[in-house]
Amino acid sequence: MIDNSNQPSSNLEYCLTPEQREELLSQVGNLLKEKLELKQELQKQVNTANSEKEQLFLEVLELFDGLESLITYLNENPDPDPRFIKRLPKSLGTLQKKLLTILKRREVTPIDHSSSVPDYQVCQVVDREPRDDLEDNTITKVVRQGFWLNSKVLRPLEVITSKAE
User: Fold this and answer.
1) 164: closest CA among 136, 127, 145?
2) In angstroms, rounded to a whole number, what is the distance separating the alpha carbons of residues 96 and 63?
3) How far apart are CA 160 and CA 142, in angstroms?
4) Domain boundaries in the chain?
5) Torsion sign (Cα): 63, 67, 70, 73
6) 137 Cβ partners below 8 Å, 6+ apart?
7) What is the full per-residue pLDDT of the chain (165 aa) written as tens digits?
8) Residues contacting 9, CB < 8 A, separation 6+
9) DSSP character string of 68-102
10) How far apart are CA 7 and CA 13, in angstroms?
11) Partners of residue 13 on adjacent β-strands
12) What 3-state DSSP class applies to 117?
């Protein structure tokens, strides 16, 4: 014969000892406290992310303003002053430096590759050109600057290399 005295009845009634009840209430209380702490931490992280995003937008808008100023001047002066044309590379270089500063604050830095041979960890060959004056597979031109994000290649350096004819 099977003893069913420890089995719950069909209407699912359970009996807890006072110690079990206190332990259960304590665990529920701890879970509710942990839930509140997690919600607060999540809100803090959301606020931080939003603040960082706003700062990025403000910095990018500074670049926008600089470009808009140049475009407005060119639109209003179809025959720009030669002094403006002479200063244009410096003005564009200043905007480029500002952009690199914005990227650096976010740990995005240019890949510095000084070798004449591509390092395939950081370089991507996008074209080859016949050259008799160079060894095969020598970098002849950097097409696009590559960037690191921390220690990971965010975008490889795009290069053209020589090939023997």
Assistant:
1) 136
2) 9
3) 6
4) 17-106, 108-165
5) negative
6) 117, 118, 161, 162, 163
7) 555 555 555 567 889 899 999 999 999 999 999 999 999 999 999 999 999 999 999 999 999 999 999 999 999 998 999 999 999 999 999 999 999 999 999 999 999 999 999 999 999 999 999 998 999 999 999 999 999 999 999 999 999 999 987
8) none
9) HHHHHHHHH-SS--HHHHHHHHHHHHHHHHHHHHH
10) 10
11) none
12) coil
Tokens of 3: 């003893």
| Token pair for 116 | 């004449």
Distance of alpha carbon 2 from its chain centroid, rounded?
65
Amino acid at 115: S
Best CA proximity match to 101, nearest among 139, 66, 144, 152: 66
Could you identify the residue written with the tokens 């500074």?
62
CB atoms within 10 A of CB 50: 10
The Cα–Cα gap between 94 and 100 comes to 10
* AA letter at 126: V
Enter the CATH code of domain 108-165: 2.30.22.10
The residue count of the chain comes to: 165
